[in-house]
Design a protein that fits this description.
single chain, 265 residues, mainly beta, Immunoglobulin-like, 5-stranded antiparallel beta sheet, 3 helices, 38% strand
Length: 265
Amino acid sequence: MIFGLFPLIGACDGDLKEHKGHPAVVKKLEMQADPENQAKAVTGKVILDPAIKAGIPEGAVLFVYARARGVDSGPPVAVRKMTFFQLPQEFAISPADAVMTQDGFDGPLTLTARLDRDGNARAGVGDITGSVDVETGQKGVTLILNQVIEETGQKVTGTISLDPVLKVQLPQNKILFLFARPQGVKRGPPLAVKRIFTTQLPYAFSIGQSDTMMAGAEFDGPITLTVRLDHDGNASPAPGDIEGTLDTQAGAENVKLVLNHVIGG
């Protein structure tokens, strides 16, 4: 848990010189233990609005980031990423978490929490967010996750299933990569991509405009979907990964995408 981190760091500060770690980690710990940074830290807890019924999927990540109040875009002033968490989750964010310069962690701030379903720093459909205005150094903040990001533009929905013949080759750690490309385009960055952590197949999927890779790209027209069941979590294909492809159209619903081909060595 994040709450209580500062006292813990303070208690361990005397050991930093004796136990040499990675320089970046040691520097981070020293910054978090700095009394000036602790004084400026904003602390509190992230809670989920009871009205939000969405579950927390495997692989989800909790982000808490700060921006100067009134600034809605661009890099945040500071960010914390929590891979292991349990809601309600206590947090602390301070100049030690600054993205560029600690000087930005002053004055009125807006804190935003995002429960990210796929662990990607970019917001996506189904992620749950919430924001609150705070002052530097404010304690006891309640940050409520109360808004589900909805799909915009066209999309394709359907199910991903595994050919029963390949069931014996199903890896324990199921990471799905879902790519969309314009039909006939076989190389280069995909039009849209999703990384999906799942423990169960068949899996109901959606991919669309909000998953596009490039600003201004339009999820439209004939497309080819490729799904890959990946063994190592790497976006590049490797021997033993299982793939499936399907030609379809942006806006199509209830499509059936089958994992039916094992990539050879």
